[in-house]
Amino acid sequence: xxxxxxxxxxxxxxxxxxxxxxxxxxxxxxxxxxxxxxxxxxxxxxxxxxxxxxxxxxxxxxxxxxxxxxxxxxxxxxxxxxxxxxxxxxxxxxxxxxxxxxxxxxxxxxxxxxxxxxxxxxxxxxxxxxxxxxxxxxxxxxxxxxxxxxxxxxxxxxxxxxxxxxxxxxxxxxxxxxxxxxxxxxxxxxxxxxx
Amino acid sequence: xxxxxxxxxxxxxxxxxxxxxxxxxxxxxxxxxxxxxxxxxxxxxxxxxxxxxxxxxxxxxxxxxxxxxxxxxxxxxxxxxxxxxxxxxxxxxxxxxxxxxxxxxxxxxxxxxxxxxxxxxxxxxxxxxxxxxxxxxxxxxxxxxxxxxxxxxxxxxxxxxxxxxxxxxxxxxxxxxxxxxxxxxxxxxxxxxxxxxxxxxxxxxxxxxxxxxxxxxxxxxxxxxxxxxxxxxxxxxxxxxxxxxxxxxxxxxxxxxxxxxxxxxxxxxxxxxxxxxxxxxxxxxxxxxxxxxxxxx
Lengths: 195, 297
What we know:
The structure holds two protein chains of two kinds. Chain A has helices at 8-19, 47-57, 59-68, 78-83, 177-194; strands spanning 40-42, 73-76, 84-87, 99-104, 115-119, 128-132, 137-141, 146-151, 154-160, 163-166.
């Protein structure tokens, strides 16, 4: 769990509930831990702040290397902005350039326009209650990015190989379906490595 | 997806916004140039003001909500969230800030109170942060709809003592609830003039039900570390950055200190060579009528 800033404790709690004792969550604020992890989570928070910390500490380089080697990565809200290839109208920092999408930050407006909604997600048999807080959205993507949910013509849940990007906050509700998918991705990789 | 299916301004959204600020530093700024410096340093949000608390103290007179022009210019200059202050109880100022599109409203004792009642915050779509000196005050604000609490401390002094006192008191009061049964909690709720259900929640969670920041006198990286070690979820820095000799360095150092608050070796490096912090005022020398923290109830 990249733990520089944001709703880290909520993410840790949700992931521990999903794990149910089969594994542990480590909070990362410095170099040297990410290379030993089976999965990486980039939480919600302020993308500019988190990016600055990733760059200053070198953890960003470790995350990039791990994700490129196939380690599953789940990124929510600010995390989604941080792992994207391109951010609309951003000149102040370089995103990690992992997920082949074009992200617009605050795509729905300021906090006044933040919202909750029941989201239809591809592969889910019932809607997912999604909490969008000053949320970004994906306005452009490469062909091999799977779009699993949209709001109007923007994508809000995507997958590209080992990368999962969510524009909202699955850690703020009790529905752990995305966490379970992510843990499934980790298990797949581990089985693959063993064979 | 139809837009009518969206729900705005729920408690989850308001408290959730505050949670995104955790582990961060929120800085007072009076111009868009200062806002850019704050964002560059890694601040999670900025508080748009006409004057920082140290100057408000010096100027005297009635302190009010900033001219919307200042707030709007700051909104346009950065992508991090913008907060702004209203006078205690001044719901019309709050309506104006909501219309401008600020992300959070600080109902603040730094400005001259407009009413003995606080704003009924549940009526707003935008979340509020409020100051508190003790658990009762914090829970009264939460009951009114505050999505975030900060210690009052003593704003504009650069003296961290009052923020420490308030944080210690709030944390200690929450710890003292541990092991109490529901009858005992009823008496506590009556004594501290707080909502019974919220007192139960504090006992069970062993923390405030909303994010709790430190504010009011934080002026150095060590001050920020101190407040984080006392259990703050993050810090507000008012006059501490832009009243210091080198605001760029101080802003960055305080952000780094919040991130490394429990690492003294790193704090040595972070605290070194920053120039003079704000001069400040020893809060012990202030007269009763000079205190800002006694505004509100």
